[in-house]
Amino acid sequence: MRLLIVEDDRDIQRQLAGSLQAAGYVVDIAGDGEDGHHLGATESYDAIVLDLGLPQLDGLSVLEKWRKQGIATPVLILTARDSWTEKVKGLRSGADDYVVKPFQMEEIVARIEALIRRAKGVASSVVTIGPLTLDTAQGLVYRDGRPVIMTPLEYRLTAYLMMRRGAVISKTEITEHIYDQSFDRDSNVVEVLINRLRKKLGTETIETRRGQGYVLAL
User: Fold this and answer.
1) Is 83's pLDDT higher than 80?
2) Rounded mean pLDDT, 151-171
3) Cβ contacts of residue 99 below 8 Å, gap of 6+?
4) Are residues 21 and 94 in the same domain?
């Protein structure tokens, strides 16, 4: 899963990115409202962490622009403003959740997990499909009750396929959601990654739809 952090405080940037990467996410960072708006409008993210007090363009304006453009990515607002009027304004501008600084990093990770699950129509942090079980809270995948040892990339792709059960996922969509901006989207690493997952999860687990992409075949 791929996230965008729009935050101008470098210490908070670093702490958020470290905690979310440790939880298995790939993270892009923008340090001001204009860059954040551009990334959120042109790249595909599973969720966005957005500070309100940004230079260039404030967070509420960024959020309102995204929503007017039809961008429905879940957004978690971070702010030092603790009044109920600010919370209402943020939620009415299109935010999905709201956290006041200072905060615990574990809370941010948990709230992001919940936002992504809701956006994918998944209520629980534990998802079971056939012999596979995904535990998003622990960042683990099981097959027939046994843990499967995975790299971070393998976990992200497995989680994305399971969250999108039944949907055919194109190679482009995969690269947009599990790799960062520096990834070479013309490379064949997606095919290599899919083959590695088939060896770990079972050759019948992921089906190739020629010319379309991949689907979890369970």
Assistant:
1) no
2) 91
3) 76, 77, 78, 79, 107, 108, 111
4) yes
